[in-house]
């Protein structure tokens, strides 16, 4: 473990159309983390916002050398934005958090305290009570964690944990080595099986604006997560096929023997159409699932970058940070190094 305050901490914040939230977020962060002020830097990843988010962050940069803006070329989604952020943070550890104040900045002090013991590489927030979520969201989230942990046996997702967490440089560097395009970050972080600890907190309501995740997006997100971490949905069809064939064979025997030896004539239409429709449905589901894996393989094979950066803006460098926060360093918004991934 390093000596008392000899560390730097990056705050990574993906933002998508959040112009109203950024000011209150910085104020709350400064308020809660005044004791860490000289060790902090804040990396906003602007995920293709169409409102004034970019301008608001550039305004911050003019007065605050701790702020960096990684401006993505378009909206790539939160998982890609977090990946972009991890490629740009410079701290010894990084806290990933939302800008809408649903992840309370005060908790970061506890994260840091645990991290500084040297026992943990990841300290994540666990939502204590989800009563503010809708019934549907609670049930679907609970179901998802159960199914995921049951099927993806080598990765255990902690229940009720979001992306809000502190991760050590070891974890940041490990995540950066993962080449996959389907970025289900919670799963990737859990897959690494780092030494992790959960800290419970009550999640407040969104400070301003609206959630960017509707049910359709959440459903796709859940499917992405599942298919990225287990091949069971693919493998199950072999078993389903065997069982159905066996049942079909027994049924056929019954009908043939009945008709040949006992003169039992089974009326056909209703039973035939039910079996045909049932099997048709099963086949379409299995094809759909195979399609789900193939489309993800297709995406991986194309090897396109996970995100594209339009530019990186700010005046932060580690030297300033070690010497302490200095407004004198803040001149104008300058383009430090456009990185094209
Ligand atoms: N976000 C993003 N890209 C997106 C959607 C969301 O960077 O395509 C950011 C958003 O600005 C916020 C965080 O991800 O800082 C969490 O989003 P939100 O609050 O809508 O999610 P929820 O809390 O409802 O799960
Ligand atoms: Mg939110």
UniProtKB/TrEMBL annotation:
User: Would the keyword Transferase turn up in this protein's UniProt record?
Assistant: yes
- What parts of the sequence cross the membrane? 236-257, 269-294
The UniProt entry, under InterPro entries, shows:
Glyco_trans_2-like, Glycosyltransferase_2, Nucleotide-diphossugar_trans
Q: Which UniProt keywords apply?
A: Cell membrane, Glycosyltransferase, Lipopolysaccharide biosynthesis, Membrane, Transferase, Transmembrane, Transmembrane helix
Q: Which GO terms describe its cellular component?
A: plasma membrane
Provide the Glycosyltransferase 2-like domain boundaries.
10-173
As for subcellular location, the record says:
Cell membrane
Listed Pfam families: Glycos_transf_2
Q: Is Transferase one of the keywords?
A: yes
Q: Classify the protein's membrane topology as the record does.
A: Multi-pass membrane protein
Stretches assigned to coiled coil: none
Q: What is its main location?
A: membrane
Q: Which SUPFAM superfamilies match?
A: Nucleotide-diphospho-sugar transferases
Supply one GO BP term: lipopolysaccharide biosynthetic process
Q: Which GO terms describe its molecular function?
A: glycosyltransferase activity
The family database entries (PANTHER family) matched by this protein are listed as:
UNDECAPRENYL-PHOSPHATE 4-DEOXY-4-FORMAMIDO-L-ARABINOSE TRANSFERASE (PTHR48090:SF3), UNDECAPRENYL-PHOSPHATE 4-DEOXY-4-FORMAMIDO-L-ARABINOSE TRANSFERASE-RELATED (PTHR48090)
Query: So what family is this one in?
Result: Belongs to the glycosyltransferase 2 family. GtrB subfamily.
**Name listed for the protein in its UniProt record:** Glycosyltransferase 2-like domain-containing protein
UniProt organism field: Vibrio thalassae
């Amino acid at each position: 473990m390093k000596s008392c305050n000899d560390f730097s901490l990056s705050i990574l914040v993906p933002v998508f159309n959040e112009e109203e939230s950024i000011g209150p977020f910085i104020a709350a962060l400064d308020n809660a983390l005044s004791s860490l002020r000289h060790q902090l830097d804040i990396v906003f990843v602007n995920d293709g916002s169409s409102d004034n988010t970019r301008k608001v962050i550039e305004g911050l940069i003019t007065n605050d050398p701790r702020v960096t803006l990684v401006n993505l070329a378009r909206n790539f989604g939160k998982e890609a934005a977090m990946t972009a952020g991890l490629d740009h943070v410079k701290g010894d550890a990084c806290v990933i958090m939302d800008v809408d104040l649903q992840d309370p900045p005060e908790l970061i002090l506890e994260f840091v305290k645990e991290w500084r013991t040297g026992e943990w590489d990841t300290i994540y927030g666990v939502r204590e009570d989800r009563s503010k979520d809708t019934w549907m969201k609670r049930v679907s989230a609970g179901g998802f964690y159960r199914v995921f942990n049951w099927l993806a046996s080598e990765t255990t997702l902690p229940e009720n944990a979001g992306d809000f967490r502190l991760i050590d440089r070891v974890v940041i560097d490990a995540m950066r080595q993962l080449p996959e395009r389907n970025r289900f970050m919670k799963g990737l972080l859990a897959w690494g099986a780092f030494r992790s600890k959960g800290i419970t907190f009550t999640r407040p309501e969104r400070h301003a604006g609206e959630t960017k995740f509707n049910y359709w997006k959440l459903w796709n997100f859940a499917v992405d997560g599942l298919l990225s971490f287990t091949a069971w949905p693919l493998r199950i069809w072999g078993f389903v096929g065997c069982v159905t064939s066996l049942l079909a064979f027994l049924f056929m025997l019954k009908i043939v023997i009945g008709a040949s030896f006992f003169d039992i004539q089974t009326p056909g239409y209703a039973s035939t159409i039910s079996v045909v429709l049932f099997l048709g449905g099963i086949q379409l589901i299995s094809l759909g699932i195979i399609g789900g894996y193939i489309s993800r393989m297709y995406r991986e094979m194309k090897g396109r970058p996970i995100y594209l950066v339009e530019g990186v803006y700010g005046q932060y460098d580690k030297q300033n940070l070690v010497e302490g926060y200095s407004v004198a360093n803040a001149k104008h918004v300058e383009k430090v190094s456009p990185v094209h991934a």
